[in-house]
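Reading a protein record of the kind used here takes little practice once its layout is understood. The reader may check this reading against the record printed directly beneath this paragraph.
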Amino acid sequence: MHNLKSILILTSLVLFISGCKGGLPGADARKVSYKSEDRVKKNIEEGRGFRLDNLIEGKKGGDFEFASSNELWRASLDVIDFMPLASANYSGGMIITDWYADSNNPEESLKLTIRFMTNEIRSDALKIKAFYRICKENLKCSVIEKDGPLITELKKQILKIAATYKAENDEKNFKEYTPKIKK
């Protein structure tokens, strides 16, 4: 019994230590100043911190608007707003449209899936798939997945709008840091 307990503790310790190889996320010493004043200033100016004097004065610590605070999510919904949605799952990171047919070509329908790989605005943050359904007479339909200029243009448009939203949000949240304690 004592040996089993020792083996269990040793195994747990090894698994715990092996999980620590990556270090802390976002703690790259090359990108973070060693001066605490600089880190505080940067966090306050980017709207990531809170100050106790804000609580005393009755100011809110931050506005959490759920999915509307994610620029990629908002931009994606704005770009495909002409298409009906079948599913939009923010926590799952996926938007699925319903079949959309243009009035000029009713035999051909389009369905999109957008997966969010990260919240950062970059080209590999989105995986977009386009499915085309072509129906002949008597509802004989075939569905194929196409990769091409449509997906490239969608990504480009989403990233462009998301970057605009990010810039607006950063500008809105920017707050000049002025230390209250004199040295």
Remarks:
- The first strand starts at residue 85 and ends at 89.
- The CA atoms of residues 80 and 179 lie 45 Å apart.
- Residues 61-66 have pLDDT under 50 and may be disordered.
- Residues 36-63 form one domain.
